[in-house]
Amino acid sequence: MEHDLSPATLAELRRPRSYPAVSVLTPTHRREPDNAQDRVRLRNAVAEAKKQLETDPAVSRDRRYDVERQLDQALAEVDLTYAEDGLLIFAAPGEHQVWSLGRSVPERVVLSDTFLTRNLVSANAAERPFWVLSLSADRMTLWSGGGGRVTEDRTGGFPLVRDLDENFDAERQEQIGDAPSTFRDERTRQFLREADTAMGKVMREHPRPLYVTGEPGALSVVQECGGVVARRAVQVPHGGLAHGTPEAVWRAVAPVREARARQDTDGVSRELEAARGRKEFAAGVDELWRSAREGRIRLLAVEENYRVTVRDAFGGHLVPAGSGDLDAREDIVDEIVEQCLETGAEVRFVPDGTLEEEQGMAGVLRY
Questions:
Q1: How far apart, in whole angstroms, are the C-alpha atoms of residue 361 and residue 284?
Q2: 344 three-class SS
Q3: Looking at the predicted structure, is the pLDDT value of residue 180 above 50?
């Protein structure tokens, strides 16, 4: 199942396809007993997609058979042992993908000439993906983090590995306090510069917050290099993680990330308060939806678990609705998030309760 949504991957998913491009969305659960019905719900959703294919006069028999095979293959790839909060299946003639989402989605089947990406985009933004680059004298490891997990990532040629001299014992030198001189060795310094260059390419193609871990000597040399790691990374003085486990990396960066998240939340609150004074503040789903469509939102703040269901009313406005209403729009929050990102707005997810007065979502307007 897929997790990493890069700009290039998103552009590929949004590419027009031969009809039908099928999107199947279903909520999932991480724990018992809520997850007991996930498998049944998923099978029912795929069955509904096949039913819509069969009854759609615009879908030829050959195309229907092709897409049904893709749906069956996608279903076979799903491993609900590692389920998160939502599942998204894309299927079209000759292709399929399965995405696991750390954000709940409404149960839905959509047939179109493009895949439905708004829930995927919103879930990716809510996960706050980040990079961790772990440095050592013989290995540079890249980790991808977000949604409560860290995994090793092989983007950009990572991990970078080099053979050390026979008499070189990096671990022993770290233990006896000689690590700084280890990283003054010219070959080691060149190795660190190579890692910085490789990380620069990764950041251009997959921009995210970056943390760098390593012994103080390694961090000092990288800082002297003045490259992308020096300019953009938050340093975490913790050695051994280039050869470490995902759990160890997560524990090492968690305090730094939590402190940064608190600072970011305080900053968002200050920006919203200042926007009120400048008459550049917007709140309420209807006002935010219209402002997002007009490209007027510069900053959108959303509580992590905020959800609301609406329907279209006369005059182009949105009004509250029940989830069972025929014309209900259950993922309007995700629609607004995607629309804001497409118009260059910054989207920040904040802890629940932060925007209590604003009823879960608010924005700073460009004009």
A1: 7
A2: coil
A3: no
Contact 108, 25 (CB under 8 A): yes
Beta bridge partners of 364: 281, 299
Q: Is the pTM of this model over 0.85?
A: no
Contacts of 113 (CB under 8 A, 6+ apart): 16, 17, 18, 19, 20, 21
Residue range 56-73, pLDDT digits in tens: 999 999 999 999 999 999
- Structure tokens given for 274: 């200042």
Distance in angstroms (rounded) separating the CA atoms of residues 114 and 19: 8
Beta bridge partners of 86: 27, 101
Question: CA triplet 354, 349, 37: central angle to 5 degrees?
Answer: 100
CA 356 to chain centroid, in Å, comes to 25
For the chain, the farthest-separated pair of C-alpha atoms sits apart, in whole angstroms, at: 79
**Sequence-ordered alpha helix ranges (H) in the chain:** 7-13, 38-55, 61-77, 118-127, 170-175, 179-182, 186-205, 216-225, 228-232, 246-277, 285-293, 332-342
Q: How far apart are CA 348 and CA 58, in angstroms?
A: 41
CA distances 168 to 82, 160, 185, 359, Å, are 41, 18, 11, 60
For residue 164, CA distances in Å to 138, 167, 178, 359 come to: 7, 8, 16, 58
For 209-255, how does the pLDDT look when each residue is reduced to its tens digit (9 = 90+)? 999 999 999 999 899 888 999 999 999 999 999 999 999 999 999 99
CA neighbours within 13 Å on the CB side: how many for 235?
Answer: 15
